[in-house]
Amino acid sequence: MTPRLTGILLMVTSMVFFTLLDATAKHLVQSLPPVVAVFGRYIVALGLSLAVILRKGNMQLMITGYPVLQVLRGLLLVTSTLLNFVAIMYLQLAQTAAIFFSIPLWVCALSVPILGEKVGLRRWIAVAVGFCGVLLIMRPGTGSFHWAMILSVSASLCGAVYNIVTRKVGGRDRAETSLFYVGFVGALAAATPLPFLWKTPDGLQWVMLGFMGLAGTIGHFMLIQAHRLAPASALAPYMYTQIVWMIAAGYLFFGHLPDLWTLVGAAIVVASGLFVFAGEAGAFKARAPAA
Prior knowledge:
Blueprint (H helix, E strand, L loop, with lengths): L2 H26 L5 H23 L10 H21 L5 H8 L2 H13 L5 H18 L9 H23 L4 H17 L2 H4 L5 H27 L2 H8 L2 H13 L5 H28 L4
Helix pairs in contact: 1-10, 1-11, 1-12, 2-3, 2-8, 2-10, 3-7, 3-8, 4-7, 4-12, 4-13, 5-6, 5-7, 5-13, 6-13, 11-13
């Protein structure tokens, strides 16, 4: 099997693990405060990242060249996770996934003021069309609109800024370092309100909390390894396989099926995201000879 194909398979499998994470979280937040589920997700991730560092025997992996940015990354991701967990209390998994796929559109738009990148007219049009797809999923002003959709949009915005900050630290910090700080900052931030919101999980809920943290950590490791083996332009289309897994999980575990407008909106968001990815890949190739 070629490295490229291995990377694609890892990308698809990581989307399965992220789907299992969200499906488990949706079940848990029906009976546990979302912040307890978030804390469980990140404390397990922290423990697993520490285990990896200890196994490698390199404690230098806990030292970052970007302490402020790493803390910011952790806060952005834990905020995105909390917003997403609250949103999935009320929304179908397919709805939150479809809205979350607007992250590449946010990244493209925000890379101009934050990173100083140039975005051509065609990509701007793709971004605008993609956000129209998000509006089609949400349908504000109709009976299909739910206020939790705003949380889902906010989660995707936090996720986009997290991705942009990750670009900044990725050139210097190792993947193990970044994963450690995500777990550490996420667990610490989620633990802050726990004394006021804590509800002790029962036996099965403890198992599910552990599984959720394990699924998230495995998914992130697979994602990192996939990008080591294959270019982002080759992997990007397979990120959107998650919508298939989310629809399947929503039906199997909760009896939910998305309506036609959600599917159409999701298709528009996915198509726009793929166009943006293709434009970024072309821009990178154009800059490569000069670099």
